[in-house]
Amino acid sequence: MLDDRATAASPVPWPAAYPKGYAVVDVETTGLGRDDRIISAGVYRLDARGEVEDHWYTVVNPERDPGPVWIHGLTSDVLEGAPLFRDIAEEFSARLADRVLVAHNAVFDWSMIAREYARAESEAPVRQRLCTIALSKELGLPLPNHKLESLAAHFGVVQQRAHHALDDARVLAEAFRPSLRAAAAGGVRLPLHECRPLTEWTDMAAGGATPRIGQQVGYGGGYGGGYRSTSWRPSRKRPACPYPNPGRYEDGKPLKQGMRVAFSGDTSIERDLLEDRAVEAGLHVATSLSRLTSLLVTNDPDSHTSKVVKARQYGTPVVDEAAFGQLLRDVEPADE
Fold this sequence. Notes:
By secondary structure, the protein is of the alpha/beta class. It folds into 3 domains: 4-194, Nucleotidyltransferase, domain 5, CATH 3.30.420; 199-230, no CATH class; 260-330, 3-Layer(aba) Sandwich (Rossmann fold). The chain contains 11 helices and 13 strands.
């Protein structure tokens, strides 16, 4: 086990390439999809060495049903008088500006935040994110799984209100500080990822009117209007998955690092972001489907796309996007 006291007390030269500040973030949402909304946000600002500078919390009126109240505890009555996201966007930006966004399963938090800013015709001042799941893997922490509660328990951090954005952000900040110090002491390169903001509120149909703020529109091509990134980007070459393929996914069991996952059809979460989540969890994202594919993720299992047809032929397990999102929360480590 890494000794936080040793790393904190030792006169270890701090890596010059490390960021100068962090914003540890947790958002609670109405769900996991493209049309879901943020209902609360908590931010702990940390300095370059992970010391807390301040914290901030807000609830947000999602302008829709609050979703799984049994998880986050925020009812429609509580949220009715809360500010809209566009009303708190400026304050949120002040908390994020010039810092690396840190979150547990960061690609999800970032996708939700970026989407909310796009709806508000604005842009979050974030250029890089750091996922604490990825960092714990870089450090080789002996965790039973990748849940926040397991990371907290490893560092002796007591969680008081699970799924409360401010307490989850506090817990993560307290677990991130010793992780950051251990990384610095060991000369570990931080797993930083680029954040691609959605910067345009566009009319994608020729001659159509620009949508109003809050108007329900699509995301990307094929709709009358939508959000899109500022420039076209080519397909990304991902690093090779470092884990061997353990075989096919079995219903009722967790995913395991090294499994080959393919995607087919439209997804609620932007495909790049969904694939990033899979890669950060230690899965192999496959661009095609073969007999070696562990799992196919599709929201339309009755379609006739080549991947779905091959999945039927090979007997490849199939799950939808929502089920896959749940599975990503607890991916088993690869066999050593």
